[in-house]
Design brief:
It is built from nine helices and ten strands. With 246 residues, the chain is α/β, with parallel strands linked by helices. It has one domain: Rossmann fold, CATH 3.40.50.300. The strands form two sheets. Strands 6-7-8-3-9-10 form a six-stranded mixed beta sheet, sandwiched between helices. It is globular and about 50 Å long. The chain starts with a strand and ends with a helix. Bound molecules: adenosine-5'-triphosphate and magnesium ion. Magnesium ion (MG) binds next to helix 1.
């Protein structure tokens, strides 16, 4: 039996009558690693932001763990953000807090964890992302790749059921991309459910179990990655893949 975590039905987002997401339908099962790819402006970021309600969808249903969250009130948003971790291009660590404090903050404030419990979890996560020695430094002394790994640890500290990544490696110097992808790889191996917007086609090919190809405000193809890259079905996908090669 599959364990469905997320179901998106006819999800539509318009900005001033202009559709950016047009009747999206998709499903995510627990343990899925999905890469969301497609040309600039297709609506990838908007889709992620509509899932965790950073943007309010115009219409449709997003069922998360069996509950339609679209009509959630503002006071329920914390809960959604807890259960869906999000990592962006910019890491947005709090500059005035140490790495450890950055990771501990939300679990203590939002989930009422004790200081000890939050610390233990934070050290465990620091170990996982390979940065145990950085617990007591401030974000400004971290490299981009280190900061992004801390941002991932911070999201994981909330014990989310789903992780959303929006181009987590796009702002990094090339030599730091690998260390972040490695952490994401490890997360995928450990069974974390993830939706990842990325330009890293090797991640899409080798780590994801599904590719969603977005173009013109819709998901035009959902496919097994090997199948998608070998044999894209739509003209837009063929064009997108050809452009990657040049
Ligand atoms: N707040 C907003 N107001 C008006 N239009 C917006 C807003 N946010 C996004 N859009 C428009 O929605 C469309 C999709 O944007 P989105 O950022 O989701 O694309 P994307 O696929 O993530 O692109 P990229 O690969 O460049 O990040 C674009 O045409 C964009 O201009
Ligand atoms: Mg985007």
């Amino acid at each position: 039996m599959t364990n469905q975590l997320l179901k998106i039905e006819n999800l539509t987002k318009k900005y001033k009558e202009v559709p950016v997401l047009n009747q999206i339908n998709a499903e995510v099962n627990s343990g899925d690693v999905i890469t969301l790819i497609g040309p600039s402006g297709a609506g990838k970021s908007t889709l992620l932001r509509c899932l965790n309600l950073l943007e309010k969808p115009t219409d449709g249903i997003v069922s998360f763990d069996g509950e339609n969250i679209i009509s959630y009130h503002d006071n329920q948003l914390d809960q959604i953000r807890t259960e869906m971790g999000m990592v962006f291009q910019q890491f947005n660590l709090f500059p005035h807090l140490t790495v450890l404090e950055n990771i501990k903050l939300a679990p203590m404030k939002v989930k009422n964890k004790s200081e000890d419990e939050a610390s233990n979890k934070a050290y465990e996560l620091l170990k996982m992302v390979g940065l145990s020695d950085k617990a007591n430094v401030y974000p400004k002394s971290l490299s981009g790749g280190q900061a992004q790994r801390i941002a991932i640890a911070r999201a994981l500290a909330m014990e989310p059921k789903l992780m959303l990544f929006d181009e987590p490696t796009s702002a990094l110097d090339p030599e730091m991309v690998g260390e972040v992808l490695q952490v994401m790889n490890q997360l995928a191996d450990n069974g974390m459910t993830m939706i990842v917007v990325t330009h890293e086609m090797n991640f899409a090919k080798n780590v994801a179990n599904q590719v969603w190809f977005m173009s013109d405000h819709q998901i035009e193809e959902k496919a097994d990655p090997k199948e998608f890259f070998a044999n894209p079905k739509t003209e837009n996908a063929k064009k997108f893949l050809n452009n990657l090669l040049v």
